[in-house]
Amino acid sequence: MTITRRQALAFGAGAAVVAVTGLPRVGLADTDKVQAAIDAFSGGATPEQAMVSLTAPEIAENGNTVPISVTVDSPMSDDDHVTDLTLLAAGNPSPGVATFHFTPMSGYAEATTRMRLAQTQDVIALARTSTGKVYIDRKTVKVTIGGCGG
Amino acid sequence: MARSKPRVKVPKTASKDEVITIKTLISHKMESGQRKDGDGNVIPRQIINKFTCEFNGKPVFSCDLEPAISANPYFQFSAKVPESGTFKFTWVDDDGSVYSTESDITVE
Questions:
Q1: How far is B100 from chain A (nearest CA, A)?
Q2: Considering only CB atoms, which chain A residues are within 8 Å of B76?
Q3: Which of A22, A59, A128, A144 is a good FRET partner for B87, with 20 to 30 A between their CA atoms?
Q4: What is the DSSP string of chain A?
């Protein structure tokens, strides 16, 4: 939001116009932050593109409440279960969304919540298991703001 | 703001070791700390930063929340029910308030 406002002042233009022109810059600035968040979670391990499945709408009309579901294909036994699962939004001012903590008592490693998306972007799910594996899945969500495109 | 009121949906009964679905919702504005008021001052962040679910004192599911979670945070997750008992749900606010509620379940 900060950048949007600053640009709005600089260009003396309407916030809606700047929200569109300002998008690519915000996206670029966040790449390092997102990578840092992924590295911090995986602890050096390379995340495998498997097991995790992220369900999000292809097009979200309202970026304020976007339903997101994650499921990890895991036996959830005492020896092999998903311990943590984090959600990242690559194009938000700060990438962190939520971190779920599961136990074998959870039964299934699945959760649904609603999140905010500032713009069209990738949503990333990272899961860590008790055996030390890290899995990743990502999905692009197109965000329509107030029905005027985005 | 209005007092945060938690709502949970847990089945009343289950069979032994059945995995049930739990839905929770708490009314909270989840002020992100990114917005500004009319004078350009940043509105301070105030969100629910932690949610936990316990069954008979044992952790089942918990979540650390960031400002990117929507207002009125909603969670749906699953839980295994090994015996009759009580689910306890707790939400922790940035201002230190703790909201909690409980729900009993009977194994048939």
A1: 18
A2: 69, 111-113
A3: A128
A4: -HHHHHHHHHHT--HHHHHHHTHHHHHHHHHHHHHHHHHHHHTTPPPBS-SEEEE--SEES-TT-EEEEEEE-----SSS-EEEEEEEETTSSS-EEEEEEE-GGGSSEEEEEEE--SSSEEEEEEEEETTS-EEEEEEEEEE-STTS--
- Cβ-based burial of A69 (10 A; exposed 0-12, middle 13-18, buried ≥19): middle
Instruction: Say how many CB pairs under 8 Å bridge A and B.
Output: 97
Q: pTM for the whole thing?
A: 0.82
ipTM computed for the complex: 0.91
Give the percent of chain A with pLDDT over 90: 56
